[in-house]
Amino acid sequence: MNEIIKEILKNLPDSKVSDSSFEAANIVLYTKDREFFLDNKGTVKNAVDAVKKRIELRADPNILLDEEKAKEVITKMFDEEAGLQSIFFEKARSVVTIEVEKPSAAIGKQGQTLKEIKEKTMWTPAIKRATIIKSQIIDDIKALLYANSEERRKFLDKIGHRIYDGWIRGRANEWVRITYLGGAREVGRSCILLQTPESRVLLDCGINVAATGPESYPFLEAPEFKIDELDAVVLSHAHVDHSGLIPFLFKMGYDGPVYCTAPTRDISALSQLDIIKIAKSEGREPPYDMEHIKAMVKNTIVIDFEEVTDITPDVRMTLYNAGHILGSAMVHLHIGNGLHNFLYTGDVNYGASQMLDPSSTRFPRLETLMIEATYGGKDNIKDPEIKADEQLAELIEQAVERGGKVLMPVLGTGRAQDVMILIDKMVKTGKMKEIPVYIDGMVWDMTAIHTAYPEYFTASVRKRLLNKDTNPFLDSYFKRVGSAKERKQVIDDEGSCIILATSGMLVGGASVEYFKGLAENPKNLLVFSCYQGEGSLGRKVQRGDKEIIFASGQKQEILNVRLEISKIDVSGHSDRNALMNFINNCDPHPKKVIVNHGEASKCLDLASSIHKQFKIETIAPKNLETTRLR
Ligand code: ZN
Predict the structure, then answer these.
(1) How many angstroms separate the alpha carbon of residue 420 from the centre of ligand 1?
(2) Taking the domains of the chain in order of start, what are their residue ranges?
(3) What is the CA(429)–ligand 1 centre distance, in A?
(4) Worst-scoring range by mean pLDDT, 136-145, 355-364, 495-504, 584-593?
(5) pLDDT of residue 193
(6) Does the pLDDT value for residue 168 go beyond 70?
């Protein structure tokens, strides 16, 4: 038996525990004793104090009330107010997940309802918020997670053993190094390998969609990277340049955990499905299949912001709000019991945004900071979001007045929902007349995911989301476009409209179809809202190319670009000033800064400015270089 479990059992009354299991870094004890389950008289708390780990006591699966009967009991207990939607049983873990519209009403005063469920059914209830907008992808993910509780329990237990079963590889507390497998001096294919004598952890594994061939993928063939040695993957956020290649790791044979927030898991899975779909529609072989996305979802362990968890024997992880998109996190790693503290910002926004709070800046300890530099150049000074919004409102108004259509290529998540909230505000305050806003397939599903996680938004947006009457995403002028036929109709229809469609760089996806349909009419307007990668169609159009050649079967078609083109950058990244302010306000100050995720000139420029202003060591490494942190 594992040493930690032995230590815990010493603190508990004899023979009360029938079984024990790890759920990643958490410890779960099972009991067949009804009374002990309902009231353990503080003994579990004593055990927690002894080992300083999270311990949960559940009823043994053998004494659970039958699922059908438990369902009846639970259904009866929830009044109209809570809005019961669905119930999922995971027998092997003794957990019942109950989805409701109003979790606070369902939990009851001081958790009274939860206590009653335990008393009447022996199941351990987990209350979750139901999505307000129906979405197939969310239903599919749930089905995957809840259907196989036996398998899930085994998997989580295996992860726990890897964390707690003592050190296998050798001497710890000696060195820490990181290798840049992608995303160094470039935007796209972010991928960083952290190594200690004990651990191999991968931070992000993305695809550069603007590149072709091997340039689009990280250097997974680097000698430092061995798939069968990999202990854990940590995903900062769902954009495909960070998440896009994770299913490929499973194709290579990885079977370990992926840590991220819950919205990141859902949005990533949806984006990865889109990668397969786009590849197939362009006649390319996708890098992985559906089964590998499923494997990733099954192996994902979701972590809330500021929840501390062990991920390997010598790495303790905490995710902090990054302010970039829904669920985006900065990854803080406490390595080797205090040997070194490392923060990876991922993509970070320290500026104000209407959807998300600015990124955190307070950490328990910090020695090395790895920061992004997408807009790290001296001249990357963004207008404040409020000004950008006014500018967008004005542009839309002009286009509508001349009878044009407005196309906004967007990343599925982030600016799309921002724009929906903005349009909702403009219509409701009479600043814009009501016109249809078409939300193309994936953006719609992304929006549905957003409605499931109101707690990740700023207080004011959260409040609006929680009320059906003020929820900005439920307005009737938002219309879903689900098929190629509907898409054609939107293009051919008379009259003005706004269209939100992926991809953001006009590389694959519905936005390219709309662009082809709308580009030749000078009344129309195209508004870019995110970074346009080198080599992408978006970059060419933004640069002012007036003739675009498309392959159409064997023939070539020339598209004349006549529509108005504008760029309003509010892509959820910090600009130069916000990056410098972020470092200035980091508490504690880092001793060393590594700059990545930016074009070479921007990385070098930012690194040199940070060095001058803060008098700390900075580097802007290249891909395949390795840095020793300790
Ligand atoms: Zn991003």
Answers:
(1) 19
(2) 1-63+149-166, 77-130, 176-378+573-628, 385-567
(3) 31
(4) 136-145
(5) 98
(6) no
Q: pTM for this one?
A: 0.92
Q: How far is the CA of 271 from the centre of ligand 1 (A)?
A: 13
Confidence of residue 514 (pLDDT cuts 50, 70, 90): very high
- 241, with CB counted inside 10 A (0-12, 13-18, 19+), is buried
At 169, the pLDDT band (50, 70, 90 cuts) reads low
Cβ burial of 611 (10 Å; 0-12, 13-18, 19+) is middle
Mean pLDDT calculated for residue range 36-56: 92
Topology of 385-567 in CATH?
Rossmann fold (3.40.50)
DSSP states along 400-422: HHTT--EEEE--TTTHHHHHHHH
Cα 206 to ligand 1 centroid, rounded to whole Å: 10
Distance (angstroms) between ligand 1 centre and the Cα of 34 equals: 48
Ligand 1 centroid–CA 504 distance in Å is: 12
Range 77-130 has CATH code 3.30.300.20: yes
Q: How far is the CA of 607 from the centre of ligand 1 (A)?
A: 20
CA of 191 to the centre of ligand 1 (A): 13
Cα of 53 from ligand 1 centre, angstroms: 33
* Res 124: pLDDT: 97
d(CA 414, ligand 1 centre) in Å = 9
Whole-number Å distance, alpha carbon 188 to ligand 1 midpoint, is 9
The whole-number average pLDDT for the span 192-216 is 93
Contact 592, 618 (CB under 8 A): yes
Q: Is 182 helix (H, G, I), strand (E, B) or coil?
A: strand
Q: What does the pLDDT average to over 232-254?
A: 97
Q: What is the mean pLDDT of the chain?
A: 92
Same fold? 77-130, 385-567: no
Cα(251) to ligand 1 centroid in Å equals 24
Q: For residues 344 and 310, what is the distance between their CA atoms, to the nearest angstrom?
A: 17
CA of 347 to the centre of ligand 1 (A): 5
Topology of domain 176-378+573-628, per CATH? Metallo-beta-lactamase; Chain A (3.60.15)
pLDDT at 609: 97
Q: How far is the CA of 322 from the centre of ligand 1 (A)?
A: 10
The Å distance, Cα 265 to ligand 1 centre, comes to 14
Tell me which amino acid residue 437 is.
Answer: V
- Selection from 439, 396, 381 nearest residue 527 by Cα: 396
Ligand 1 geometric centre to CA of 323 (Å): 10
> 351 C-alpha vs ligand 1 centroid, how far in Å?
15
Helix (H) or strand (E) holding 465: helix 459-466
What is the pLDDT, as a whole number, of residue 427? 86
pLDDT for the residue numbered 432: 80
CA of 610 to the centre of ligand 1 (A): 22
Report the percent of the chain where pLDDT is more than 90. Answer: 68
| Contact of 412 with 271, CB cutoff 8 Å | yes
Query: Domain 1-63+149-166: which topology?
Result: GMP Synthetase; Chain A, domain 3 (3.30.300)
